[in-house]
């Protein structure tokens, strides 16, 4: 069913769906290591969803689905199913990520391009570029690996299943290029001014207007040479193995937060909120993990995030497991409080179960990136943040033909601006509660920028 929204343009599939011939075959094992898949990617528009060396990468584009506004998820989901109705698929491997898949990236906000400009944003001109609020890219070639199995999927608009996959031989991509000298500057809101926003948000929370809000900031990196996304991907995949390294339509990053995975009826979400820097400097606690696990401010932030995920998943699940206490996730830059929420997808009597993208839509925006209550937090973000979040903090991932898939929250990420290949916009946000300290939050946001600044060579 296509969602209808008066102000948003209708979704678009280009080229218009014809018959798609999809074929997956097993191929020889790749070398081991976390970058084996991303090392295959060509420089133009690489697609990636990789963790610990497994996952899928893709290139080329056989179809693109674009959607806008509040219906961006449902419209994209419906358009994907329309593509699949005309697809002929032969899958000789049958693993998650084999057969027909599309890579997707969505905007954080419902309001569409320009929303933050109305709030007086003074950043780079990225909002009114006419870009869609959601995109699903159907590649020409996918290579995937899971456990010991490696496969290739080809997508063709002509040909037959009898013919061998057109690109059975793995490509030898052009050498990865360095961005050269990189200069980082403040984005929409100067770092020092951002602390005032944090103080204002904490004041409103203490005054009882809301419980929690996540405030984000951006920074802009300008580079000497055009940014080769693979330069970032290789470094992120090697350094942040516990994260999902992604690249979809110019959005590149390594997120530690899995919004939802739906696989054969099992739903999983890794919820993160509550953070301590790895090297917080003088006066730091002797054992940061213990400090974090006992920090009432961080436990409060975390509890809101877990609750929002559990509440959003509950209507779609017949049973759920919500851990009583979080564990501490260790990353090279920060430690997080983390909870893995799992559920069994219910089979509704009145129609199909939601796809992974439908579940992502129900979960977005969780309290890990927005706040509690959601509507109040969103309103405060729009009022004071002064930032067009674009696709930061929104679902990014992949969707399969059976609706299974994985969607991360696009954190620890950057947007390679289509309008300027020498500019990259980086994002980081922090959960604010009544006890939040502006200096500590600014330092935390700097630590959250590190995956991308490090990948850029800064
Ligand atoms: C919003 C971000 O992180 C979220 C995820 C983990 C921990 C968070 C925190 O402790 O504030 C944030 O909720 C970000 O990295 O930009």
UniProtKB/TrEMBL annotation:
InterPro entries: ADC_synthase, Chorismate_C, IsoChor_synthase. The keyword Isomerase applies. Keywords: Isomerase. GO terms for biological process: salicylic acid biosynthetic process. It comes from the Bacteria. Its EC number is 5.4.4.2. Residues 191-448 form the Chorismate-utilising enzyme C-terminal domain. It catalyses: chorismate = isochorismate. Belongs to the isochorismate synthase family. This is isochorismate synthase. It comes from Sediminihabitans luteus.
């Amino acid at each position: 069913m296509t969602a209808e929204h008066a102000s948003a343009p209708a979704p678009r599939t280009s080229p218009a769906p014809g018959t798609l011939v999809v074929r997956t075959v097993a191929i020889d094992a790749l070398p081991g290591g976390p970058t084996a898949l991303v090392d295959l990617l060509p420089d133009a528009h690489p697609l990636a969803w990789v963790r610990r060396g497994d996952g899928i990468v893709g290139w080329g584009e056989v179809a693109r689905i674009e959607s806008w506004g509040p219906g961006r998820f449902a419209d994209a989901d419906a358009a994907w199913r329309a593509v699949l109705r005309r697809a002929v698929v032969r899958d000789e491997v049958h693993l998650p990520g084999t057969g027909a898949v599309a890579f997707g990236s969505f905007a954080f906000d419902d309001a569409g391009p320009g929303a933050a400009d109305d709030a007086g944003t003074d950043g780079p001109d990225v909002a009114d570029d006419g870009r869609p609020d959601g995109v699903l890219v159907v590649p020409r070639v996918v290579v995937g690996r899971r456990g010991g199995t490696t496969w290739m999927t080809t997508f063709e608009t002509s040909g037959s299943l009898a013919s061998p996959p057109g690109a059975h031989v793995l490509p030898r991509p052009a050498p990865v290029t360095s961005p050269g000298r990189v200069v980082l500057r403040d984005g929409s809101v100067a770092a020092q001014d951002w602390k005032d926003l944090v103080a204002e948000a904490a004041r409103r929370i203490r005054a009882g207007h809301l419980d929690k809000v996540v405030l984000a900031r951006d920074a802009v990196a300008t580079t000497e040479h055009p940014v080769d996304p693979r330069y970032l991907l290789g470094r992120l995949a090697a350094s942040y193995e516990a994260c999902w390294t992604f690249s979809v339509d110019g959005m590149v990053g390594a997120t530690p937060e899995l919004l939802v995975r739906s696989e054969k009826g099992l739903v999983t979400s890794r919820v993160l909120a509550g953070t301590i820097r790895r090297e917080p400097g003088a006066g730091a606690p002797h054992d940061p993990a213990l400090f974090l696990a006992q920090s009432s401010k961080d436990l409060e932030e975390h509890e809101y995030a877990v609750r929002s995920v559990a509440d959003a998943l509950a209507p779609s699940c017949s049973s759920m497991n919500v851990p009583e206490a979080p564990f501490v996730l260790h990353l090279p830059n920060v430690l997080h409080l983390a909870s893995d929420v799992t559920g069994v997808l219910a089979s509704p009597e009145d129609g199909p179960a939601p796809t992974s993208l439908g579940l992502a839509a129900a979960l977005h925006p969780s309290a890990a990136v927005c706040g509690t209550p959601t509507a109040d937090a969103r309103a405060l973000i729009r009022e004071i943040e002064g930032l067009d979040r674009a696709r930061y903090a929104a679902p990014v991932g992949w969707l399969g033909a059976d609706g299974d898939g994985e969607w991360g929250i696009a954190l620890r990420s950057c947007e390679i601006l289509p309008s300027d290949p020498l500019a990259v916009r980086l994002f980081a946000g922090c959960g604010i509660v009544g006890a939040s300290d502006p200096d500590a939050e600014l330092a935390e946001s700097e630590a959250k920028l590190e995956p991308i600044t490090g990948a850029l060579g800064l």
